[in-house]
Design a protein that fits this description.
Blueprint lengths: L12 E4 L4 E4 L10 E3 L17 H33 L3 H20 L5 H4 L1 H13 L5 H15 L1 H9 L1 H7 L4 H14 L3 H15 L6 H22 L5 H25 L1 H4 L9 H4 L2 H35 L1 H37 L3 H28 L4 H5 L3 H16 L1 H17 L2 H26 L3 H26 L3 H25 L1
Antiparallel strand pairs: 1-2, 2-3
Helix pairs in contact: 1-2, 1-10, 1-11, 1-15, 1-16, 2-8, 2-14, 2-15, 4-5, 4-9, 4-14, 4-15, 4-19, 4-22, 5-9, 7-8, 8-11, 9-11, 10-11, 14-15, 14-20, 14-21, 15-16, 15-18, 15-19, 16-18, 16-19, 16-22, 18-21, 19-21, 20-21
Length: about 525
């Protein structure tokens, strides 16, 4: 823990907006180790009042978050493409593909394992703060390697669950045919998840350094290849629905391989000096792994509890019949695409807030957090209007069944109603991850979804015969509660100087552990 004399706001923070550079001198670095941070100087305002909503900062954040948003849209398109292509085989194939994809991400993010989006949220805290405040430039690469290795190990229980998913799905009341075909689909997906975890971890490693467009470039290249693989394997081989699973699996590994190649050849990356080679001993140091899991597990719960709630809605929709289940698949796939916008803003915000906390700028981190909240409200309002205006179109993109299209148009206004709240949950959730307070997001989700939303939604759906609409009314309640709670914590419940001190403590703890390992060698 830093002493009261540790430089927080007093540390010189030189900002040059024209060159989009932030330079920090002093702190724990020697004069010869001055670090240059290649991102826009968002939130680093010298305004002594601080903590004010600044439209210019929001515009700057939007500019920086665009490649992140695009990368998540393209990344989600990997699964969405498989759902659309498989859906053309018939309503049953649409249900199997969409249901299996939902099961993949729910079990991957909220059970005993730590994988993909949930587990890598630890890098939002540790990586971003280490990049600007670590004692050595290569501390960030140690965090990255630790993330990949720990998450790969923790994929094992998830793989077992997927390999024997049929009895689990049957226990939840799914049909024998859907359960059997979903299990076959999931068994193929087992081979793709290590590639997905590697890609997601490497993407976070680069984002922590302000390199936001690398993953986007890779995904732009991969997108047409993924589409071609899906069409080829689903419609021109005997694999049919399993062809979609193999297409996703191959695409995940291709993404990881291409991003690793880009990283190894990138001058933007090499100029930072953050890669110090492979250090498995340092990455697997027990105390370091414990500190990682302290953030990763709440991060899994923070992301996974929301996904699990939507999976429960999907399971409940399956009890309503084939048409509600197909409509739920369309609505959920659409919502996943749209959710990439607030989630992308949240990722950009978590990186920015974490970088500024690492750089010991409490005021800068505070302003960046407020800017992300303002931006999410503005964009959420536009998305809400868009969904209402085109509510009759979305069903046609996935299905030719008139009943499915009609039910989608009825439920879509409910989805539109929570877009602002979902935006706040995404941006403020990102701020909490940048601070290292993932546990609060997990707590809010647990209460909002499992104490209130799901009981309300299921009661409306089955007891009061509201069907799929009733289930989604419950989700609306949850998202409004989560968005409001996280916004209030960021706005009123954060001691920003204390968060800076926590960041100093994290970086100093990692430095001591690495020094001990170096001495042993």
């Amino acid at each position: 823990m830093a002493t009261p004399s540790s430089p927080i706001e007093s540390t010189p923070l030189l900002i040059e907006r024209n060159n989009s550079l932030i330079t920090r001198e002093g702190s724990s670095l020697s004069p010869s180790e001055t670090v240059v941070y290649p991102f826009r100087a968002l939130g680093a305002s010298d305004d002594p009042a601080g903590g004010r909503l600044n439209l210019k900062d929001s515009v700057s954040l939007f500019h920086d978050s665009l490649p992140v948003i695009l990368s998540y849209i393209l990344q989600n398109s990997i699964q969405t493409t498989s759902v659309i292509v498989a859906g053309r085989l018939g309503p049953n194939e649409l249900s199997v593909a969409a249901f299996s994809m939902m099961f993949v991400f729910v079990t991957g993010e909220c059970t005993s394992g730590c994988v993909a989006l949930g587990g890598t949220t630890a890098l939002d805290t540790l990586g971003s703060q280490a990049f600007t405040g670590g004692s050595r430039k290569t501390d960030l690469s140690v965090h990255f390697q630790r993330c990949v290795l720990v998450l790969w190990v923790l994929l094992l229980p998830i793989s077992l669950l997927w390999a024997f998913a049929e009895p689990v799905l049957l226990a939840f009341g799914q049909s024998e045919k859907l359960s059997r075909e979903a299990q076959d689909f999931l068994r193929v997906m087992i081979f793709g998840m290590p590639g997905y975890v590697g890609f997601e971890s490497l993407k976070k490693y680069l984002q922590c350094q302000g390199i936001l467009d690398a993953a986007t470039s890779v995904l732009i290249v991969v997108f047409p290849l993924n589409l071609g693989l899906n069409v080829l394997l689903v419609h021109y081989t005997s694999l049919r629905i399993l062809g979609a699973a193999w297409a996703v699996t191959l695409t995940y590994w291709l993404c990881f391989a291409l991003l690793a190649t880009w990283t190894s050849r990138s001058t933007a990356h090499s100029s930072h000096g953050t890669w110090g080679g492979f250090h498995f001993k340092a990455a697997l140091e027990p105390r370091g792994c414990y500190e990682f899991l302290k953030l990763a597990i709440p991060g899994i719960l923070m992301v996974g509890t929301e996904w699990l709630a939507f999976e429960i809605v999907a399971l409940a929709a399956g009890q309503l019949g084939d048409v509600p289940l197909a409509a739920q698949s369309v609505i959920m796939t659409t919502d996943q695409i749209l959710n990439t916008i607030p989630f992308g803003i949240g990722v950009a915000a978590s990186t920015r807030v974490g970088n500024l906390i690492g750089a010991r700028s409490a005021l800068g981190a505070k302003n960046a957090a407020y800017a992300s909240a303002l931006l999410s409200v503005i964009i959420g309002s536009f998305v809400m209007v868009f969904l209402i205006a085109f509510k009759n179109v979305f069903g046609l993109l996935f299905s030719d069944d008139e009943a499915v299209v009609r039910l989608v148009s009825v439920v879509m206004p409910l989805v539109a109603s929570f877009q602002v709240a979902d935006g706040l949950a995404g941006s403020c959730g990102g701020v909490l991850r940048g601070q290292g307070r993932q546990h609060l997001g997990a707590l809010f989700n647990l209460v909002a979804y499992y104490v209130l939303a799901l009981p309300v939604g299921i009661t409306l759906a089955f007891r009061y015969n509201q069907g799929l609409q009733g289930l989604w009314i419950g989700q609306v309640v949850a998202l409004f509660l989560v968005g409001a709670a996280e916004f209030l914590v960021v706005w009123l419940g954060t001691d920003w100087k204390q968060e800076v001190l926590k960041g100093i403590e994290r970086n100093q703890g990692e430095a001591k552990r690495q020094a001990c390992i170096a001495n042993e060698e």
